Amino acid sequence: MLYSLKIIVGSKNPVKINAAKHIFAMYFPEHEIDCQGVDAPSNVPDQPIGEEETRVGAQNRVNYCKEHYQAHYYVAMEGGAEQFSYGAATFAYVVIDNALNQVVGRSSNLPLPQVLYNALLNGEELGDVMDKAFNTTNVKQKGGAIGLLTNNHATRESTYTQALTLAMAPFLHVDLYSQTN
């Protein structure tokens, strides 16, 4: 008999829901995974700029989910962009919470063309900027900027999946992560 594991994702974006469902199914194969997306406010701009704003957006989504829903785990992903010393890039922060622990993880960087980053600074969202540049529609619920810029060798979902996989480590080895000395 399979036990159900309920996961609430702080977004209704199917890319984010699928990434979370994939990770929990991988780590908990003996459970039936009930993974649901809900609208959860980030309380940051639609296009976060900078690592801090992006991380806070993901944490705000998870905290909202914890306050309004009952689940075993709460998950949020927030994509952002920043101008680093070596160039513009986009990335995502992920947060996983199980009511005992909240773990923050981060994806790798995808270098962004400066012209696209400049559009973000002018108030546009990355998905809309990419749709214009590549003549696509609603790419943020598909492969995302990552898919377009890597010719689909990586996707938005694969990037979230990797970041979530790594962020699960403290839940798998609680004793080790709780040691301080």
TrEMBL record:
GO molecular function, one term: nucleotide binding
Reactions listed under catalytic activity: XTP + H2O = XDP + phosphate + H(+); ITP + H2O = IDP + phosphate + H(+)
Cofactor: binding comment: Binds 1 divalent metal cation per subunit; can use either Mg(2+) or Mn(2+).
Keyword Iron: no
Originating species: Pseudoalteromonas distincta
Record function comment: Phosphatase that hydrolyzes non-canonical purine nucleotides such as XTP and ITP to their respective diphosphate derivatives. Probably excludes non-canonical purines from DNA/RNA precursor pool, thus preventing their incorporation into DNA/RNA and avoiding chromosomal lesions.
Gene: yjjX
Residues given in the record as Mg(2+) binding sites: Q70
Domain Non-canonical purine NTP phosphatase/PRRC1 span(s) in chain numbering: 10-172
Protein name: Inosine/xanthosine triphosphatase
